[in-house]
Amino acid sequence: MFRSPLSYCGSTLLISFSLILLCGSIRVLHAEANRTPPGIGVDERVGDTVPLDTPLINESGERVLLGDFFKDGKPVILIPGYYTCPRLCTLVFNGVFNGADSVIPDGLVPGRDYHIVSLSFDSDDTPETAHKKGAVYRSRLQTKLASTNGTLDESGWTFLTGTPDSIADVMDAIGYRYRSDGEEDFTHAAAVAILSPRGVITRYLYGIEHSQRDFRLALIEASQGKLRPSVGDRIYLFCFRYDNQKGQYSPYAWAFMRIGGGLVLLVLVALVIFLKVTERKG
Length: 282
Hints:
elongated, 5-stranded mixed sheet, 13 strands, two-stranded antiparallel ribbon, Glutaredoxin, 7 helices, alpha+beta
């Protein structure tokens, strides 16, 4: 069917306009995930212990203590966020989900090997909204585990709420700074805290995506020997250290200097042995 040049021109303009809007939306999300407005961010408190006696509310509306999630001696990923967030929080939750999914082939399963705990910093969030959000991510994880004949423990990923005071206690403990816009939304950073089985802050992961390597090593370091690293992990942890500025594990200069010094020493020893053997033969 014949179409006039004006129709083609109109279609082209519509497609171009749609692409511009899409690219603009992507840039906005990327900027939101990486911006640090005044008064917003994370004051790292690595080595501090979170207040385990803080009372919170689970998805069933029952009172629990933060320390309940550490009783079985497993590391915990603590995710600050709020459950009605229209943008960044969902990206942060998705990033943790993708990280958890990426280490399932390594044998690291939420609930069995570590816990994921989300805590809303919006005191208006209810157990109902927490359960609605939690059901989505647990269902997605269970679908992933089904392919390996695994099952997700109920404690695999828990969504909690709390009173203003209890929320403030936990957020202050991990150095997480956020701000209400005065209406329904909050301005906040994209970050999660990794905690040892004793509730000690061992690491922060920033952004909305985490590599499989960084996610796995953060859990292994936090586990304090509960999760045994492979030989490759041991070598990597010896040669690399987590760089909070870059948000990833980076080469550890001193480790490479030690390796280089060891290799030089081996070469010198081999040379001395070779010269002595040659001298005897002569």
